[in-house]
Amino acid sequence: MCGIVALLLGDPKATTAAIDIHESLYYLQHRGQDAAGITVSQGGRVYQAKGNGLVSKVMNDGARLQQLPGNLGIGHLRYPTAGTSSVSEAQPFYVNTPFGLCMSVNGNLVNTEELRRFLDVEARRHINSDSDSELLLNVYAHSLTELGKSRANSEDIFTALRAVYDKCQGAFACTVMIAGFGILGFRDANGIRPLCIGSRPSATLEGATDYFMASESVALTQLGFSNIRNIKPGEAVFVQKGCAPIFRQVVTPRSYSPDIFEYVYFARPDTVMDGISVYRSRQNMGIELAKTMREVLGDKIIDEIDVVVPVPETSNTSAAALAAQLNKPYSNGFVKNRYVFRTFILPNQGLRKKSVRRKLSPIECEFEGRNVLLVDDSLVRGTTSREIVQMVRECKAKKVIFASCSPKITNQHIYGIDLADPAELAAHGRTTEEIAKHIQADHLVYLTLEGMKAACMDAADKDSLVEDFEVGVFTGKYVTGVPEGYHEHLSSLRKGKKRQAEAAGLASEGRDESTRNAVLVTNSGPVNDAGPEYREDISIHNFATENRNHE
Ligand SMILES: O=P(O)(O)OC[C@H]1O[C@H](OP(=O)(O)OP(=O)(O)O)[C@H](O)[C@@H]1O
Ligand SMILES: NC(=O)CC[C@H](N)C(=O)O
Ligand SMILES: [Mg+2]
């Protein structure tokens, strides 16, 4: 679930867009820890720095910003869902034809094979990586080229987008920079992935306005932007140098169904997404979960609970509300190591496992001799819950009850969160009792899907247009539908990649990710690194290009 941004400074002489973009990426780091990148433009020339790692590492604590002059630009934080973790798939992507186009994508496409064939055979564009985002950029670039203009106007920018909506199936929110011209943002026709825009007065040119787009409102508010407006499903916004933004409904919206996973896990609590406060939605989930627990477990078991403990960090908000609703003491019984990041979005299972203990440690006296209720936002592979329950038992708790703010996760997430092969999900083929046994809890309670949806809807402000939520991970029904054989295709890609990694001896658990190469690309397109690729899941092999015969 990547983070994307775009900025246009109102002062045409300004050169500091990269400084603000860099700053904003710190507020979105939780959306992707694998790679980061910034691309800016000055006088029509494109400058770019990207690589594997956190923003601070890639930008060398800001030292690289000196090489990034410009008054407009885009940024990206990557959490891979397609292709590999290779640095050649770090974003933004750049293509020189037409006009110098750069793109940052949050999302995932489900018809990549078809797009690859189209780009190879019909559009005759070379694709240099396994990333689905590179495909999306090239579909747009091809469509813009087909207009046959040597200079584009804002109308052309929107017209060319129609092909993206026609051809690309899946979920996407994108920011684009057209070198020296302006910034563009657009969102899929169901509004699955988020994007918003805001403005602030220019600090250096009186009367001028800066415009900024980002995945989450927190990045805007922290940088002094206000008048925040969500881009609607199927809508685009273009901000040309020196002009006010133009909003355009490119295609008819199919629905307004944001991904519910943003609210339960992904987004920061200080974000308001599509008119719904993430913080309030999590509080409501806690309240709903308390009610469900009473229904499922009965008063006796609830009365015996001595303490409610969140599994930091995302569940803190829900757990506090749940404790208040049950009238039970709340304790921060786990200490979160502030130097360890999100474990779920780490790229392999060995790292995830190791990270849980490194990240969370129990305060023994908060558990000893007590009936403990542990609350987490989600139970996906069960990596966290198994370790945590074990730790609480080591602290001599009397009883361990586990409660999840999400319903059972039984299906793949196909729109930008790399959940796992369904067979790796804790709930795969198991009843609730069997899952409780698997994580060694005495009882396990899940929030219902209706409860979770209601919790989010009840947190909506009066202007929110959200109609429903994308909940395919819980139901197996996805708002866009998927091409026939897609799940089997994903599964065989995963297996192939795993076999490849094992054969190369690279699948060892807990391998140090810092051995990956990082490069600084300035004013250039995607570059293939020679570094090891040992991500254990999806890799899409570029058969089309490989088999191309020029004779
Ligand atoms: O069942 P699992 O496969 O372990 O996945 C679920 C866990 O992963 C996430 O935590 P994470 O450490 O990523 O982030 P957080 O600090 O925001 O809670 C999530 O909040 C759950 O705790
Ligand atoms: N999490 C995301 O939004 C991923 C974007 C894109 N599919 C990639 O793998 O790079
Ligand atoms: Mg967590």
From TrEMBL:
Organism, scientific name: Thyridium curvatum
Comment on bound cofactor: Binds 1 Mg(2+) ion per subunit.
Enzyme Commission (EC) number: 2.4.2.14
Spans traversing the lipid bilayer: none
Spans annotated as Disordered: 506-533
Pathway(s) where this gene product acts: Purine metabolism; IMP biosynthesis via de novo pathway; N(1)-(5-phospho-D-ribosyl)glycinamide from 5-phospho-alpha-D-ribose 1-diphosphate: step 1/2
Bias (Polar residues) ranges: 516-526
Any one GO molecular function term: amidophosphoribosyltransferase activity
Cofactor: Mg(2+)
PANTHER family per record: AMIDOPHOSPHORIBOSYLTRANSFERASE
Key words, A-Z: Glutamine amidotransferase, Glycosyltransferase, Magnesium, Metal-binding, Purine biosynthesis, Transferase
Name of the protein this chain belongs to: Amidophosphoribosyltransferase
Root EC class: transferase
Annotated active site: C2
Keyword Magnesium carried by entry: yes
